[in-house]
């Protein structure tokens, strides 16, 4: 199976599977944002009209998905993608009355405390959220009883000492999977403890995506087939890993 539309269809993500594969791949900045967003919100109670912060939204695919599928209002915040560029994508999807793009750094959010009903962060939280102090900053922007949900590439088990050889070796594509930034990858249990010990939130879900490594491999295959890849293929390391270490972690918590 090499057709991108077929590769991106999965019965676990029926909403995401209806979206045009070319559009998803053209705007991708990492593993399939729509799969991961749909998986995340399966564990959240999003209702029409809610105010949602999509933190680190990239090219706003997750923001567009949330607004269209759940009728929420989304503030699409990203540091690197110009808001004007995201606004064009949002308008093309006729969602200008529900999705509001802005440039924001994760430590300098321009919002009132308690403004949001929910905060989501798809494939970005590990870049800043491993900081012991970050949750105490972020949680103030969601109302009491509101939810915070993240999905990140993560580990199925932690390791001490040397990086497993298959993660650190150079692949035939020329890429090396494990770089210094990968030390931000952690298990679901690590993330649960990281948040729960603060007492600021009540962790409701901390788990991994069943078959996540297979979805990651299919995503890599679709990216390579489409020619939309920004980086060398990780197919070799994903196949060698087979889910021993790599996958996706989801966590949802409610502000205490």
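-> sequence recovered:
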């Amino acid at each position: 199976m090499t057709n991108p539309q077929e590769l991106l269809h999965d019965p676990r993500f029926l909403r995401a599977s209806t979206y045009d594969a070319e559009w998803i791949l053209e705007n991708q900045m990492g593993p399939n944002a729509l799969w991961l967003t749909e998986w995340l919100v399966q564990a959240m109670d999003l209702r029409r009209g809610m105010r949602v912060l999509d933190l680190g939204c990239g090219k706003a695919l997750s923001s567009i998905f949330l607004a269209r599928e759940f009728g929420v209002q989304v503030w699409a915040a990203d540091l690197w993608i110009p808001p004007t560029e995201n606004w064009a994508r949002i308008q093309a999807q006729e969602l200008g009355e529900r999705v509001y793009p802005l440039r924001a750094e994760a430590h300098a959010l321009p919002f009132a405390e308690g403004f949001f009903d929910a905060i989501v962060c798809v494939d970005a939280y590990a870049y800043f959220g491993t900081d012991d102090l970050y949750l105490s900053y972020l949680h103030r922007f969601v109302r009491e009883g509101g939810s915070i949900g993240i999905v990140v590439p993560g580990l199925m088990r932690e390791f001490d000492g040397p990086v497993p050889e298959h993660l650190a070796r150079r692949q035939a594509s020329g890429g090396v999977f494990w770089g210094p930034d990968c030390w931000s990858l952690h298990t679901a249990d690590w993330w649960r403890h990281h948040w729960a010990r603060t007492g600021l939130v009540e962790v409701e879900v901390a788990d991994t995506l069943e078959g996540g490594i297979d979805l990651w491999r299919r995503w890599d295959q679709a990216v390579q087939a489409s020619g939309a890849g920004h980086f060398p293929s990780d197919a070799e390391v994903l196949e060698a890993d087979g889910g021993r270490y790599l996958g996706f972690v989801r966590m949802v918590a409610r502000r205490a």
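DSSP finds ten helices and seven strands in the chain.
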